Fold this protein.
Amino acid sequence: MGVAEAVLLTIITASTPLLIAALGELVTERSGVLNLGVEGMMIMGAVAGFAFAQISGSAYVGALGGMLAGAVFSLLFAFLTLSLVANQVATGLALTILGLGLSGLLGEAYIGQPGIKMEPIVIPLLSQIPFIGKLLFAQDLIFYISIALLIAVNWFLFRTRAGLTLRSVGDNHSSAHALGINVIAVRYMAVIFGGACSGLAGAHLSLVQVPQWVENMSAGRGWIALALVVFASWRPMRVLFGAYLFGAVGIAQLHIQALGFSVPSQFLSSLPYIATIIVLVIISGNRRLTLINTPASLGKGFVPDR
C-alpha cells in the first residue's frame, strides 16, 4: 500500500462519522429544529455500540445499538422541546452534558477491554482495482451506509413530497400548520432520524476507528458536525466535501508529527477546531447566502392552535 493510499484511507475513516452526524443534523435543522446535543448523542452511540458489540459478539449489533441509543436520546430532546416547548439551545446543551456524564458512568466497566472491530466488506474484483480499489470497495459497512445516506437524504429533501413537506415546516411552521401538516409529528421524526445518525456516527468511533471504549472519545466531533451543516449551507452534497475536508485537517496532525516538524502537539490537536472557527467566520461574512438557505423557523418553538 502506497503512502498516498494509506493517507486517503485514514481520511475516509476520520470523515465517515462527521458525514453521518452532519447529515442527520441537516435533516433535523431542515425541519426547523436546532439540536445542539449532537456531541452527547454521538458519545452515547459510542458507548452503546461498544457495549452491544461486547454483549452480542457482533459489531453489526453494536452499530444498531449505537443508533438506538442516539434515537432514544434524541427522543428525550424532542419531548422537551416539541411537546413541552423548552428552549432548544439550552436543552441541546444540557443533552450534551448529560451524554458526556452518562456515557462515562455506563462505560466505566468497559475501560481497558478489547473491542470487537467491524471488519471491512471486500467486494470481489472491484477491490483489486489499483489505488481506488481499497479506498472504495474494501471498506466497513458504516462507510457504505454514509454514502447511501448522502444520496438518500439529497433525494428525499429535493425529489419527494415528504421532503417538500419537511422543508416547508422548517421554512414556515405556521403556514405549514394552516395547510393541515402535523408540524410536531414531522419534527419528531426528523429529530429521531438525526439522533439515530449521531448514534451510528458514535458507534463508528468505538467499532471502526478505535475498537475500544475511551471516555469522551467523541472529542468534539459533534460540534464539528454542527458547524458542517452551516458550512454546507444546509445542502447535503456540500456536507460530503466539508466532512472530508475537516477529516483531512483532523489527521493532518498525525502526519505533521510523522514528518518530524517541531510543532507543539497541543496546537496540532486544535487544528480541526481552528479550521471550524475560520470557516464559520468566512461563512458569516456572506450574509445573503446564509439567509437564503437557512430554514426561517430554525430554533423557533411551535405551539399548534387549539
Q: What stands out?
A: The chain has 14 helices and two strands. The two ends are 65 Å apart (CA to CA). The chain has one domain: 3-293. The CA atoms of residues 59 and 118 lie 5 Å apart.
